[in-house]
């Protein structure tokens, strides 16, 4: 799949339909892949960290979660590029998984979130197979605890492990564990668990499509998010002006 260089991060030229088709091929072929779901904030974190840059640029897919990344790709000539938001991808893949028998493992969120996520989606899709849920503590795990986590996941044998630890923590976690886990797909989806369990409100659809979702989130959580957007947006725009997106 083609990629576009956005400030040094190689974002996949994809959309929601194409991403789901790629997941199906990986699972059918038994490929083990890592997927990064990248918005503007995640991209800025990644470009400032050589290790994170490598994770994003060597992933199976680095999908454009935010409209600014979609517009950057379209500016580079990839008109077919579309937004692949974490909550939308989670919902779409789980519906497909219920039909195809793919197994899931939810890892992340505050206490009880992963369990509630399983309940909500199994109510919607009774055939959905969730083989494990886990909400790790916010602190770093000890080596013994981490080894136990790996053993539990491998014993459960999920096709897909959904990681909701937030960026860039989830990308570092995936990079550290992809050679130790047997799941076909590891994918970090940030706050998607909280959106689907009602802990966070999502912006209206028109704001999502027009690139204004950031303003809704800032309105909802100004104290936590003001630096991300007030400082991040100018940094991103200035970077794009200096280094226009280009095909890789």
From TrEMBL:
<keyword id="KW-0808">Transferase</keyword>
<protein>
    <submittedName>
        <fullName>N-acetylglucosaminyldiphosphoundecaprenol N-acetyl-beta-D-mannosaminyltransferase</fullName>
    </submittedName>
</protein>
<dbReference type="Pfam" id="PF03808">
    <property type="entry name" value="Glyco_tran_WecG"/>
</dbReference>
<dbReference type="InterPro" id="IPR004629">
    <property type="entry name" value="WecG_TagA_CpsF"/>
</dbReference>
<keyword id="KW-0328">Glycosyltransferase</keyword>
């Amino acid at each position: 799949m083609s990629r576009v260089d956005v400030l040094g991060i190689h974002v996949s030229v994809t959309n929601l339909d194409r991403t789901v088709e790629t997941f199906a091929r990986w699972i059918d072929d038994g490929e083990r892949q890592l997927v990064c779901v990248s918005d503007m904030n995640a991209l800025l974190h990644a470009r400032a960290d050589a290790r994170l840059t490598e994770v994003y640029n060597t992933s199976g897919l680095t999908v454009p979660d935010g409209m600014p990344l979609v517009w950057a790709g379209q500016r580079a000539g990839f008109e077919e590029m579309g937004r692949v938001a974490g909550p939308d991808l989670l919902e779409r893949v789980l519906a497909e998984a219920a039909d195809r028998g793919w197994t899931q493992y939810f890892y992340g969120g505050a206490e009880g979130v992963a369990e509630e996520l399983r309940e909500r989606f199994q109510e919607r899709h009774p055939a959905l197979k969730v083989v494990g849920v886990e909400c790790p503590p916010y602190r770093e795990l000890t080596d013994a605890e981490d080894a136990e986590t790996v053993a539990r996941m491998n014993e459960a044998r999920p096709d897909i492990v959904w990681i909701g630890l937030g960026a860039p923590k989830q990308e570092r976690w995936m990079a550290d564990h992809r050679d130790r886990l047997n799941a076909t797909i590891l994918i970090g989806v940030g706050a998607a668990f909280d959106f689907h369990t009602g802990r966070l409100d999502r912006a209206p659809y028109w704001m999502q499509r027009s690139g204004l979702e950031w303003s809704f989130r800032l309105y909802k959580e100004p104290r936590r998010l003001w630096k991300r957007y007030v400082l991040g947006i100018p940094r991103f725009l200035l970077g794009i002006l200096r280094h226009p997106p280009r095909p890789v």
